[in-house]
Design brief:
Elements lengths: L11 E9 L2 E9 L29 E7 L11 E4 L12 E6 L3 E3 L6 E3 L3 E11 L4 E8 L8 E3 L2
Antiparallel strand pairs: 1-2, 3-4, 3-10, 4-9, 5-8, 5-10, 6-7, 8-9
């Protein structure tokens, strides 16, 4: 598929103690994951953590493309990446629904393959949208969520 962005993992925060010739010395003040030599630094960005849920004005259709920590499946209160972003009208607080594709079954009368309707498996709230993708929190799930599951605005 198309590249929609680069995932940057927020490992923690440091306080710069000194700097000389583009070499910095700092102290880790918060760590959310292991911080190692060679990890990249960027200036901290203040993010408004007050998120007000909203329903999108238009129909949106995307998919789950990332599960935090490279897990095979996700559930309620886990963070995922979705293929919808600011360009699609997504903003912090956009509420979306997760769907599992309908299974393919054989019709006993005709012998034809028939796809069952897709099944609602959860809901999410967008936390941090980027231009073509977003990070979202699963607020409800009734079964495992996998990469490729549909994300829709109904």
């Amino acid at each position: 598929g198309d590249v929609v962005g680069v995932l940057v993992e927020h490992l923690g925060q440091i306080r710069v103690e000194s700097a000389a010739d583009e070499v910095y010395r700092g102290i880790v003040v918060k760590a959310f994951a292991e911080v190692s030599r060679g990890d990249r630094l960027k200036p901290a960005k203040i993010i408004d953590t007050r998120i007000e849920p909203s329903i999108p004005d238009q129909a949106l259709s995307g998919s789950v493309m990332y599960i935090r920590n490279d897990a095979r499946e996700a559930g309620q209160n886990q963070v995922i990446g979705i293929s919808l972003g600011i360009a699609d009208g997504v903003k912090p607080g956009t509420a979306l629904t997760l769907y599992k594709a309908g299974r393919l079954v054989k019709d006993k009368l005709t012998g034809q393959d028939v796809r069952l309707p897709q099944e609602e498996i959860g809901r999410l709230l967008v936390l941090v949208p980027q231009e073509k993708a977003s990070i979202a929190l699963i607020t409800h799930s009734n079964q495992a969520i996998n990469i490729g599951d549909a994300v829709l605005s109904h």
